[in-house]
Amino acid sequence: MGSSREIERKYSVDQSFVLPRLTQVDGVATARTRRTVTLEAVYYDSDDLRLARNRITLRRRTGGDDAGWHLKLPVAPGVRDEIHRPLGSHDPVPADLVDLATVHLRGAELRPVARLVTLRTARRLRDKAGCDLAEVVDDQVTAQTLGATTVVQKWREIEVELGSGDPGVLDAVEAVLTAAGAELSASASKLAQVLGPALSGAPGPDVPRAAAKLRRRTPAGEVVRAYLIAQVEALLATDPRVRLDAPDAVHRMRVACRRTRSTLRTFAPFFPAELVAHLDVELRDLAGALSAARDAEVQIDYFTGRLEDLPADLLRGDVVGAISARLAADQTAARAQALEMLRSERYLTLVEDLLALVNGPFVGRSGKPAEKVLPGLLHDADRRLSRKVGRAAPLPVGAERDELLHSARKQAKRLRYAAEVVGPVYGPPAAAFARLAESMQELLGTHQDATIARGLLRDWGVEAQTAGEPTAYTLGVLLGLEECRARTAERDFFDLWPDASARRHRRWFVRR
């Protein structure tokens, strides 16, 4: 058993509701009724309902054709990733599912919190070619809470789950259902409905909601908080996907770390100095643990492409195999390092600290209007970039200049993130400036990537040459190409800099 993406909509109906003829839905040729089944599910959560509060469900279901353990992780409204595991015994909950929920549980024990028995009648909607467009299920639900207090509820609902059809089929089915008297459910899930009273008395989600509308008169701290909330949400959402080794998950978590760290640095006056210093170190080390895994992944793709583009007469020995073996070993070790970090108490403490940050008060001038405070801090970040570039420009090509350009790249990234922070307040000018900073960051990033690749190729080439391996020749060719790539990116950056540093790009935040 593995995982799948669930896209569904739920509708509340009363007992007198008559399911309409579903073949009237555009594109539906047949709506075959499947046999009625009885499903029994026991849901697990902490005493304070940490999973349910964050729209996560963990259950053990029997009956039907998908019996087993199910962990559902939210992706977007009406969209969840569902991870499946075999039934096994009642206890304990599969360890890997507990691991996937660790970032939300953070040491809290799991226990059964609800039991649902569902009498389900399903209708599979297919087109003329026999393609499964969607499934419409009619559920009669009997639910009870488990624990010190038992509450029993009964209700009927309709669920529509997308099959392999176009998502537009959900709208078409909805139109038919609502015309017959169905209403969109107010509950996100069956569990949310049965736990309703308990959830209403529990704390809210781990991450608070950001202010709905940000304006220039909005307190500056609330503008920064909204950005930090988005980054913490991204970190929490990608945590289980990093553990599952999902594509691009490591990259997205690392970016969330870097955006958070950059924001704390740029807008440091809004936070206690000791908190900024503490989180800076912790976020740096988390991003570092993730970076090795991400870098190995990127390097494998990059070198594979480089070798594919080389003429055959420049390929000597099994250079493809040699590079792949080295990087695959690096990737395996890096993934183990990343998982070790995510399973440490240090990481869980960092998560708690980040949640306290976005839920707690800010300090300094954070209560002042955004237009009075944020431009100056953005201007400070911009001047830091100019100083770094100014120090690198007159130096000759070499290691010292490379190091300063690497520092400038990091500052260009911070400037880009700072522009993203104020983007909701300043609109198109901020978005355009963020894109400009990103252009600078990308050129300097290419320079840094080539610098790293040169170091790897130099080491590999020396080893191959010492061992008398023919791959040394091709590694030398690649080394020359990376030297050219680094210097081309460096040249392109300095060609861009006179325009990128022009005042006209900054009129919206630099006071005259």
TrEMBL record:
Leader sequence segment: none
PROSITE patterns, sorted: CHAD (PS51708), CYTH (PS51707)
Residue span(s) of domain CYTH: 4-198
InterPro entries xref list: CHAD_dom, CHAD_dom_sf, CYTH-like_dom_sf, CYTH_domain
Superkingdom, natural source: Bacteria
Domain CHAD span(s) in chain numbering: 217-502
SMART domains for this protein: CHAD, CYTH
Pfam families (UniProt xref): CHAD, CYTH
CDD domains: CYTH-like_Pase (cd07374)
UniProt-recorded name of the protein: Metal-binding protein
Organism whose genome encodes this protein: Parafrankia soli
